[in-house]
Amino acid sequence: MPQHQDQLQPKGELALQTITMPADTNPFGDIFGGWVMAQMDIAGAIHANHVAKGRVTTVAVGSMEFIRPVPVGAVISCYTHTLKIGNTSIRVKVEVWIKDFITHQLSLVTQGEYIYVAIDTKGHKRSIIHAE
């Protein structure tokens, strides 16, 4: 299990930021985890598209960890960084942070690993072009 207790700042680049809305809540009034996962997938795909220099598709989600509930009205920020680049795939770590409106303290609320595969215009796997 990832160590998050000592992590005080996000790791990676800000890939997506949005506000949580009442329509996205579960029966207990917190933001539905599936909605958060969808935002994470979008953020990860933005990152993977940049790395792959083209179209990618999600193939797997692994090591998902929900740390605390996300309240309505919170601004969530999804940070991403590359964990591994293969011949056709990219493994991306996505962290979701919220900022307290009063204290301005950042809190890690969830994190996970998303795996994307680079695809061509016909939806077939393609090699990732490494630029350096």
Q: Write down the overall geometry.
A: elongated
Mean pLDDT value: 91
User: What order do the strands of the largest sheet run in, or round the barrel if closed?
Assistant: 1-3-4-5-2
Helix fraction bin: 10-25%
Low-confidence stretches: none
CATH class group = Alpha Beta
Number of E-state strands = 5
Beta-strand fraction estimate: 35-45%
SS-based class: alpha+beta
The helix/strand order is: EHEEEE
Query: How is the CATH topology named?
Result: Thiol Ester Dehydrase, Chain A
Please give the count of helices.
Answer: 1
Going by CATH, what is the homologous superfamily?
Hotdog Thioesterase
CATH architecture annotation: Roll
Q: What value does the Rg take, in angstroms?
A: 16 Å
C-alpha termini separation: 33 Å
Provide the number of structural domains. 1
Q: In this structure, how is the largest beta sheet organized?
A: 5 strands, antiparallel
Oligomer: single chain
Key descriptive features of the protein:
alpha+beta; 5-stranded antiparallel sheet; Thiol Ester Dehydrase, Chain A; single chain; 15% helix
Q: Could you characterize the architecture of this molecule?
A:
This protein has 132 residues and is an alpha+beta fold. The chain is built from 1 helix and 5 strands; from the N terminus they run βαββββ. The protein has a 5-stranded antiparallel β-sheet.
